[in-house]
Write a structure and sequence with these properties.
The complex is a heterodimer of chains A (267) and B (600). By secondary structure, chain A is mainly α. In chain A, 78% of the residues lie in helices and 0% in strands. Chain A starts with a helix and ends in a 5-residue tail after the last helix. With 600 residues, chain B is of the alpha/beta class. Chain B is built from 16 helices and 17 strands. In chain B, strands 14-13-12-15-16-17 form a six-stranded mixed beta sheet, sandwiched between helices. A five-stranded mixed beta sheet of chain B has the order 2-9-8-4-6. In chain B, a hairpin with a 6-residue loop joins strand 8 and strand 9. The longest helix of chain B is centred in the N-terminal third of the chain and has 27 residues. Chain B is elongated, with a radius of gyration of 33 Å. The termini of chain B are far apart. Classes of the chains: A mainly alpha (267), B alpha/beta (600). Chains A and B meet through helix 1, helix 3, helix 4, helix 5 and helix 7 of A and helix 1, helix 2, helix 3, helix 4 and helix 10 of B.
Chain lengths: 267, 600
């Protein structure tokens, strides 16, 4: 049985190890095949690791994009192979890791430390209780596999979209040819419009469906008030004016003057 | 959608544009993949909202009981357990918080006992200490991240979870545990949803009391004669003290025949015993504005409740009946004579109800009031502040938009008509009234920046004296003999108007009643000379010392005025005030005028 302090120490080391690994990976993704000075590379990686520690994934993405912007050669056609897919998958993984934050890093460190301790005989494997519906380790692996599958699908969908949409010269001529041959519209505007409408409907419908009773009531109330706002406002302000006039009439002039004098100056 | 997702999409959009324009396939792919990823996460998030949220159930147990109503005591520890369960698996990355009103004090979870460190642990600890501090601080462990005890974060999937925390009750009144605020978000923090799940439980909070060790017997201890002019209520009864001997009259109980005296006088004599008249205690409880202002547990009202409950307990435990007059600016509520355990509980309930502050009379809108209400809204009604479902009239000013939004929430919460809704938007008085009501319902105390004190405290003090005086005069009119009047009121604020009350006090003393005053102070300290010395030159200490000096002067003036009449006064709602009143009850029982004992 390991003492908590010892485990804590190993966990800090594992945290540092994770960041070191991430730094190496970022270095490979950002500066592979470049002639950038070592100091600049290290500074950039340190800044990015700082962003990772603060869960600023957009900064990591910006760095990766900047690297691609500066390094990737211009091609007339959108051609994708294994390398762009792997690069994008790794990049999404890094951004996701950044956003998962400290708690995820802690869990990974704990798991790593536990594995090392089990391997060195310093700790016994945790027995899975029969009352637990699922083995937590298997559950974790299952979730990781699902996540990997989702990311793969995302990459494939993005690839298909980029290849299909007429954003490169080759794709544009392909669209034109297929449109002429099939006697369809020559530009995918209609398809995109339908897709966008579909998405808008889905978004709006999802928004309405998740309304609570109180929200629905408030929406109705606000809609009614907005419809009659100017009339109601006029009535209310007129009534207020009368009320104030009545109060002023009942207040002696001396008090009114005092009230005016007592108003604190605006700072 | 959170700012995190917005920034990511913005950067992705930049990359996509530049990638497409420059014909960079990898850049375009990476940027578009980010868009698709966020879209996929949105769909997953929506699925969780539709399928996971409606299945969530909450159950709360307070001290092991899940009933909707109950009773709790001030100063005692309360254990609260919250159970969350669902028919499906609850996915991680959401946070729940059991809303705890201000009247409860959250206790930190009990700390783990440190184990005896081994040599290896010591080495590891020293190694950790050798690491730079910024590294160690950058890696806080999950159990080191500070959370309030009533808030928990789910980071692993489960179908049921139990949480527990401990609270203490700060003051008497009413406690409403409204429910649970839930923050649902996806794993990466792109989308967030706040919902409030009502799990209502209402409790009556009874005031704490000091159980005096000195319980006096019901029989008289001194057979003292009262002073000239003081007439104790002496009548025959079934007490233990002999009142007189008289000749036997047919019908007298045989056990009352004094056989020795009858033998000596050669005629039957009967003993008549004195009736033991219980000392009746009148409590006058002040519930005016100044007694209610402040945080729970620090108000004058809390001190008054403590003293009143303690005195009532001491009196009732020896069989003396207690009555109370609950006085505030507008009304006087009289409680009947209460005796026994049931009577004591009835009195505590009445004090508890009286402590539930009504919305304050002074209604002025302040920026603090608005801010506090908005924060409360974010906590209790997060869904009502979502702009998409709450359209408001257009305005350039952010403060006006805030006001319109708040008016809409108030209209929904208090079910106002469209006309009243618009009135709240434009009439500050109306809005302030509903804001105070809103805070009141949420169990917020009367705190200074939100609640403005009455413009003329002197007039308020005069009015308070008048109301108290009338209540006392009424009680004197219904009183019999040797009763004790205990006035628990904030009289220091209106000491210059004491003459009004002194007339009634003189009347009470003239009718051989005993009168005691307890005037609690905000500092909980007796205003003696030692505490007016500032501890340091800081502004806070100087102001505290100045306040103490002011209170001491007022107290000295008041004490002088009352001592002239022979009335006991205490200026702190502490145990010595309770002892003083118990001593006064003892004096009333014995018919003496001094505590030292013997005939005076």
């Amino acid at each position: 049985m390991q003492s908590p302090v010892k485990t804590e120490f190993f966990e800090v080391i594992a945290d540092c190890g994770q960041l070191l690994g991430l730094g190496l990976l970022l270095d490979m993704l950002l500066f592979e095949g470049t002639q950038v000075m070592g100091l600049v590379r290290m500074s950039a990686i340190a800044a990015l690791l700082f962003a990772v520690l603060n869960s600023q994934g957009w900064l990591v993405l910006l760095a990766l994009q900047a690297s691609l912007f500066l390094r990737e050669p211009h091609r007339p056609e959108m051609m994708f192979g294994f390398v762009p897919g792997l690069y994008s998958l790794t990049s999404i993984g890094i951004v996701a890791y950044t956003y998962l934050g400290q708690s995820f890093r802690n869990r990974v460190s704990k798991w790593l430390v536990m594995q090392i301790l089990i391997a060195t005989g310093g700790a016994e494997p945790i027995a899975v209780q029969s009352s637990q519906p699922q083995n937590p380790r298997l559950e974790g692996l299952r979730l990781a596999a699902i996540q990997f599958g989702v990311w793969m699908t995302i990459i494939v969908v993005a690839m298909l979209a980029l290849m299909r949409l007429p954003i490169s010269a080759g794709a544009r001529s392909e669209w034109l040819r297929s449109a002429i041959e099939n006697d369809f519209t020559i530009w995918p505007g209609a398809t995109l419009l339908v897709l966008s409408l579909l998405l808008v409907i889905v978004f709006a419908e999802a928004g309405w469906r998740q309304m609570t009773v109180a929200q629905a009531s408030l929406y109705l109330r606000s809609a009614i008030v907005l419809d009659h706002y100017w009339d109601l406002r006029m009535i209310v302000l007129r009534r207020l004016k009368k009320k104030r006039a009545l109060v002023d009439a009942n207040t002696p002039k001396k008090q009114l003057l005092e009230r005016v004098v007592d108003v604190p100056p605006k700072l | 959608m959170t700012n995190r997702a917005r920034w990511l999409l913005f950067v992705g959009l930049l990359g996509l544009f530049s990638g497409v324009l420059r014909g960079q396939a990898m850049l375009s792919l990476l940027s578009l993949a980010m868009f698709v990823w966020v879209l996929v996460e949105w769909f997953r998030f929506q699925a969780r909202i539709h399928f996971e949220l409606p299945r969530l159930k909450f159950e709360r147990k307070v001290n092991g009981r899940s009933e909707a109503n109950g009773t709790l005591w001030v100063g005692r520890i309360v254990h609260i357990e919250l159970r969350i369960f669902s028919s499906t698996t609850i996915q991680p990355a959401f946070q729940i918080r059991d809303i705890v009103p201000e009247i409860l004090e959250l206790y930190a979870p009990s700390l783990r006992l440190p184990s005896v460190p081994s040599a290896a642990s010591m080495v590891c600890r020293s190694l950790i200490q050798t690491l730079p501090t910024w590294i160690v601080k950058r890696f806080p462990k999950a159990d080191e991240i500070a959370h309030p005890p009533n808030q928990w974060t789910f980071d692993q999937p489960c179908s049921e979870a139990n949480f527990a925390y401990t609270v203490g009750v700060r003051a008497a009144g009413q406690l409403k545990l409204p429910g649970v605020r839930l923050t649902l978000q996806d794993r990466y923090g792109f989308f967030q949803l706040h919902r409030f799940f009502p799990v209502e439980q209402t409790f009556r909070l009874l005031p704490d009391y000091f159980q005096s060790a000195e319980v006096r017997p019901t029989v008289k201890r001194h057979n003292s004669l009262p002073q000239h002019g003081i007439h104790r209520l002496q009548r025959s009864g079934t007490g233990a003290e002999l009142l007189e001997l008289r000749e036997y009259v047919p019908g007298d109980p045989p056990k009352s025949i004094a056989w020795k005296v009858s033998a000596r006088r050669d005629k039957l004599m009967t003993r008549k015993y004195e009736s033991e008249v219980p000392v009746r205690v009148h409590l006058f409880v002040d519930g005016s504005f100044s007694t209610r202002i402040g945080g729970y547990g620090l108000r004058l009202m809390d001190q008054i409740n403590f003293v009143a409950a303690s005195v009532a307990q001491a009196a009732i435990s020896v069989g003396d009946p207690v009555s109370a007059m609950l006085v505030d600016e507008t009304s006087v509520k009289r409680l009947p004579w209460l005796a026994g355990d049931r009577g004591f509980l009835q009195l505590l309930k009445a004090l508890s109800e009286f402590s539930q502050s009504a919305p304050p009379a002074a209604r002025t809108i302040t920026p603090y009031l608005m801010q506090c209400s908005l924060r409360l809204c974010h906590e209790r009604f997060p869904e009502l502040l979502e702009r998409h479902y709450h359209p408001i009239p257009f305005s350039f000013l952010a403060s006006t938009r805030e006001r319109f939004r708040m008016a809409g929430v108030l209209a929904q919460v208090f079910d106002l008509s469209p006309n009243e809704h618009v009135e709240c938007m434009h009439d500050s008085d109306k809005l302030a009234y509903y804001l105070h009501l809103f805070l009141q319902d949420a169990g917020m105390p009367w705190m200074a920046p939100m609640i403005v004190a009455p413009p003329d405290p002197a007039a308020g003090g005069m009015h308070r004296m008048q109301v108290l005086g009338e209540a006392m005069a009424k009680a004197i009119a219904h009183a019999r003999d040797n009763e004790v009047f205990v006035v628990l009121a904030d009289l220091l604020g209106c000491a210059p108007n004491l003459s009004q009350l002194l007339r009634v006090v003189k009347l009470a003393l003239a009718k051989h009643h005993r009168v005691a005053f307890v005037c609690p102070t905000t500092t909980f300290l007796r205003p003696d000379s030692a505490i007016i010395e500032p501890k340091s030159e800081s502004i806070q200490d100087l102001m505290l010392a100045a306040e103490q000096a002011r209170v001491r002067d007022l107290a000295a003036h008041m004490k002088r005025e009352l001592a002239r009449l022979g009335v006991a006064v205490s200026f702190a709602g502490q145990r010595n005030a309770i002892q003083m009143i118990i001593a006064e009850i003892g004096l009333a029982r014995d018919g003496r005028t001094l505590v030292q004992g013997g005939r005076s």
